[in-house]
Hints:
The chain is of the alpha/beta class. The chain is 48% helix and 12% strand. Helix 3 runs parallel beside helix 4 (102-116), helix 7 (170-198) crosses helix 10 and helix 10 (238-255) packs antiparallel against helix 11.
Amino acid sequence: MTENPAARPAVALLGTSTMGAGMARNLAAAGLPLTVWNRTADKARPLARVGARVAEDPAAAVRGAEVVLTMLFDADSVEQTVRAAREGFAPGAVWVQTSTVGVEGVERLARVAAELGLRFVDAPVLGTRGPAEQGALTVLAGGDEELRPLLEPVFAAIGQRTLWVGGVGAASRLKLACNAWVLTVVDGVASSLALARDLGVDPRLFLEAVRGGAMDSPYVQGKGAAMLEGRHEAQFGLGGGVKDLELVLEAAAAAGSDAALARAVHDHFAAAAAAGRAGQDVSAVWFAHEPTRPS
Length: 295
Ligand SMILES: NC(=O)c1ccc[n+]([C@@H]2O[C@H](COP(=O)([O-])OP(=O)(O)OC[C@H]3O[C@@H](n4cnc5c(N)ncnc54)[C@H](OP(=O)(O)O)[C@@H]3O)[C@@H](O)[C@H]2O)c1
């Protein structure tokens, strides 16, 4: 029996940093022909060892690819990179946009896709560096249903689950709701640890008290322990957290949704970023919870 070539579409991945590197390894491990590019080439070169072709520029990366994934910082960096790749796109190529770009961002990028003649799929992901490395992301996907069979092996390689949520834009809106939650939880853990500390209780007892209960989660224990042990290597970069909270606030304002909580969380993340923590993990929001002396 001859193999259906669509089962292994040629893939290009633009962006191989915290998230993209793990995704690339899993795409290659799944046997998909893969070309990668990253602005800082040192982050892409090691992927040659897992069988990826490493391209020198975005246009060379997308040449011949049926599916092009973008995993870059924000809508501006995605737009810039895709425009730089324009000469290389194969006719009918499908652009799967996995970065977190918000509501205005996804609408803008869909317009860029139309202008460049690309078929566009809005596909932000849930999960941080660990799940990206393990091929265990959750893909929130929106776009033309006809593209599902082509994309199935791609999403199966990077994720444990794909949730199709409708047309372009719905997935990016859902992603904002998910990230508002994740970042509120991280800030909530920091806030309760700091309160325990400031009330003269060992903050480790907070993690012990909630352990195994209905409000516990691996994220609560993992981020809480990282805060108390001073481990802040980026799994989900704090600068990205600030960017996502800005997208949440912008979208909430446009929709007339109450955003008082997201505003407070944003202000803590922005304070930690201003204190030089943008390159660390979101757990470094802990540093925005220093005690203030009573007057
Ligand atoms: N980390 C997470 O937990 C997580 C989870 C889900 C979704 N996301 C989203 O996924 C995306 C990538 O996240 P990440 O954690 O991998 O981010 P990251 O480690 O900060 O990497 C950002 C990437 O964007 C590139 N970039 C930035 N500005 C650029 C420009 N002007 N032109 C070309 N490339 C540019 C960087 O290139 P250089 O390497 O050259 O700097 C790098 O490849 C973001 O939208 C993020 O919000 C992250």
